[in-house]
Amino acid sequence: MSRGTQWLWPAAALVYAFLYIPLAIVVIYSFNDSRLNAEWAGFTLSWYKALFNNTEMLTAARNSLVIALSASFSATVLGTMAGLAIHRYKLKVLPVLVFTPVAMPEILLGVSLLLFFLQVLNLTLGMISIIIAHTTFCIGFVAIIVRARLQGMDESIFEAARDLGASPWQTFRLVTLPLIMPAVVAGALMSFTLSIDDFVITFFTKGVGEPILPIQIYTMIKVAVTPEVNAISTLLMLLTLIMIIIAAKIEARAAAGTGAVSRNEAGQ
Amino acid sequence: MMQAFSLMIKTAPRRNTNENRIARFLVSGPPMLFLVVFFAAPSLIMILTSFRFPGEFGGLAPIAAPGEAAHGEYGLTAEAYQFFFSDIIYAEIFLKSFGVASATTLICLIMAYPLALLIARSEKRFRNFLVLLVVLPFASNFLIRIYAWMIILGPESALSHFINATLGAFGIAPVTLLFSPFAVLVGMVYVHLPFMVLPLYTNLEKHDPSLLDAAQDLGATAWQRFWRVTWPLSLPGVFSGSALVFIPVLGMFAVPDILGGTGDILIGNLIKDQFLGTRDWPFGSALSIMLTLAVLSVAGLATWFARSAIGQRT
Amino acid sequence: MPLLPFILLLAWFVSLTAGCARQDENAGSPTSGNVLHLFNWNNYIAPETVARFEKFCNCRLSQDYYSDNEEMLAKLAAGATGYDLIVPTGNAVDTLIRQGALMPLDKSLLPDLGNINPAYLDTPFDPGNRYSVPYAYTLTLLGFNQEKIKELDLPVDTWAIIFEPKYLKKIKGRVTVLDSQRELMAAALKYLGYSVNDADEEHWKQATDLIVRAKPYWAAFSNTSYIKELAVGNLWVAHGYSNDMFQAALDAKNTGRKFTIGYSMPKEGTVLSLDSMVLHKSGSRPDLAHQFINFMLDGKNSAELTNLIGSGNPNLDAMQYIRPEIAENKAIFPDAESLSRLEMLRDLDRKQRRLLSRLWTEIKLR
User: Could you state, in order of their start, the residue ranges of all structural domains in chain A?
Assistant: First the structure.
């Protein structure tokens, strides 16, 4: 540890506590044998049991999973292409289209897509509308991650491949893709998480009749708060934790492996 | 040796063969098409909608005159914008939203800076883990993070009882923590804190420790070292982080909706209400356009500040 | 690892088709079998009724819910299709008829229509009941903690208790009002002596001023949480719906509270919310829909809801099945004299809606 950091530790610890205590409370009270999130009344798994008997919640979870799989796949494919294109070619329009949805307040995206679906496409709102909406805002995140990885790479390896006679497609398939694979996977996992988690855009583009997980949670919070909300929250946190660990492991393996040729290491 | 080699390759002329042109089209085409259809077009539709009349009983009035006698007006109009400017209350809500966004950004900055500094200055092998610890809460569902504060600030909670007992000891009337501007602020800060930590950390990590060593050798105190070396160098990170917090907060409605009292509505709540309550799409679209303009000006200002601040330092 | 991309592609394809399939299933396509799609309020039909109907018609009742007329209208405007039957409140029926979104009823399929109390037929928005059949109704009124009110000596037969500072200061922080533009405005207009459908801008400004003056004394604007708060004793007065007050009174009694919840209609008059069954033109089973309506016109079925939640019942045949303490409650079943002081809300046109929205923003912000 460098000099002058003694005072940093307590300050940082407080901030970490600020970040984690609320979530810890949610998790702890999901096991609380009491309707109120107030005093501790004993350990129970009854809220989790109630959750699994709640067909609407299960349907919502299933729908959200389907949407997240579809949207993250589409966003990963399109986002990787976008990241590659922006990095390699001097494009004017694409970067704006790709990165603006990331920076805009979500409500603007939600509202404009709602209007577009209804007026121009005359599309009945439903799963498809949500999948399209999620793909739209996830593309930017994937593109950022892929592009960042490409920027950290030594260009010479691509030139070398082409000098050796590889076509652009071969270069991509045999050289580029394996090298950016950790970024692609990270992007896919990020899109999946963002999609499962998304509230605002889903709120505006969902149809009637299909329950979606975040909207279900929102309704439960607004109408009648029971510890079932804590239970579903804990499960969701567990899911994203697993996703992040997987992503971190993949990232670590790629960095340690022989596949990565970073500019830092090459330019010794 | 590798450097020389790569330099040589880089200066070789790029071959603009047909193969390359096709590749470029194939790679940039699909995302371009998708985003033009599902991002650019909807944005234009929103602009168009703000210039239309609302339908008599919901939806929108038609643009072109229908065959038979129409009920109500049709065509394009700036009525929605006139309505916006006709009463000071809408400017007030915008001002209020800006206020909340500024306060949130400032608090996030104050809380995030020590954290980012700590992570940047700790040993390399701990850094990724510490960053992960920051990102992890962010990865949980957004509503859960807000809900957690409903529990903590609720009237039955330990915190409420503690605070009200303390206030009671001084003879002050009990306060409700939840459903108040305070709760909204706490919620906003909580949700956006990681967005401030990450850009700050990314910037601080790149600082050369020898600069601080040199300053210390020249007799600078810890505060002087921070204020005259670390802080100026960290400004680009400060600006990115601030933008990443300020802009989303401007448009947020879920936090005031769940944690706020009835008077704590922000511009996002107003927009949502136009679409899902009052059935006034043109006005909702006009509000959204005004919000977009606000966001663009903030982004533009931030970029200008960042450029001039960095310019001064070099 | 060439296998991995194929697996992913398969997963994506499967999930996409699953998404499309689910969408069709929910939209009520012909492949979904004998299903009646009902779009109804939360908690607005007894489970026994549903079970009995499904046996009766040999079909399945698929339900979707809304908690607000505006929410329902917004969803329909957003292109929600496939609902056979909807149960909107009067002003929303008004809107739907004017939008041309409803299918006319086939009276020949509704022999029990005569069971309905004529006082609730032939409404201004649907003369001759071409589109709607009354289902249930509720009154907007004041609920209160009986003991506290007696102790503080406050009048509960007038809107003054929530608008006049001289009463409000005794119950500051213990009173809530409905978080509804139309309802709160209606209460204020009635108190000022105007009609709930009065759209005069000047009158609306007076009502707004009245509301803004009283607002500092109110604890909150609340649409549902007041039920629990009354029942546990945190609130002493609440502006709300008669069936919610019935619930609060029941809760207080069942949990053995030392107080009772009472509710009464203010003498200046109030809003009557009549919910009716209508057929949406995008529904695919009008036959089943008519069966359901006629089923609910049978007094025994219609009484179940009243006995469950204390809602007003426009069905004369149902009176014999309703528990006496509910049937005699004037706040749930108003007599003819009270009926004359009740008004139903009409829908507003777009200019009025815009103005009301602005006044509401002012009310919230000031």
Answer: 61-210
Verdict on whether the full-model pTM lies above 0.95: no
- Chain B interface test: which of C349, C350, C362 (most B C-beta within 10 Å): C350
Domain count, chain C: 2
Class in CATH terms, A61-210: mainly alpha
Is C9 a domain residue? no
Quote ipTM for the complex.
0.83
Contacts of residue C293, Cβ cutoff 8 Å, sequence gap at least 6: C85, C105, C109, C110, C133, C277
Report CB contact under 8 Å: A69, C12: yes
C360 with C326, same domain: the answer is no
Residue B15: the pLDDT is: 54
Residue in B111, B121, B285 closest to A1 by CB: B121
d(CA C127, CA C125): 6
A174's tokens = 């045999």
β pairing state of C102-103 and C270-280: antiparallel
A175: which DSSP letter?
A: I
Please name the residue of chain B whose CA is at the shortest distance from the CA of residue A84.
Answer: B27
Shared-domain flag, residues C168 and C252? yes
- C357 in contact with B, Cβ within 8 Å: yes
CA distance B135 to chain C (A): 27
Check whether residue C150 and residue C239 sit in a common domain.
yes
The answer to whether residue C23 sits within a structural domain is no
Q: How far is A126 from chain C (nearest CA, A)?
A: 6
**A72-99 pLDDT, tens per residue?**
999 999 999 999 899 888 888 898 899 8
CATH topology of domain B80-313: MetI-like fold (1.10.3720)
What does the pLDDT read at residue A152? 77
Band the pLDDT of B215: cuts 50, 70, 90: confident
Please, which chains are in contact with B (at least 3 CB pairs closer than 8 A)? A, C
Chain A residue with Cα closest to B19: A168
Q: How far apart are CA B313 and CA C263, in angstroms?
A: 71
Looking at the domain assignment, is residue C341 inside a domain? no
Q: Show residues of chain C in contact with B273, CB under 8 Å.
A: 357
Residue C267 and residue C149 share a domain: yes
Is C103 in a helix, a strand, or coil? strand
Chain A residue nearest residue C28, CA to CA: A209
Match 């796949």 to its residue by tokens.
Answer: A73
pLDDT in tens, B123-164: 888 888 888 888 888 777 888 888 889 888 887 778 888 888
Q: What is the DSSP letter of B54?
A: B
C339 touches A at CB < 8 Å: no
Query: Would you call B89 an interface residue with chain C, using a CB distance cutoff of 8 Å?
Result: yes
CATH of the domain at C219: 3.40.190.10
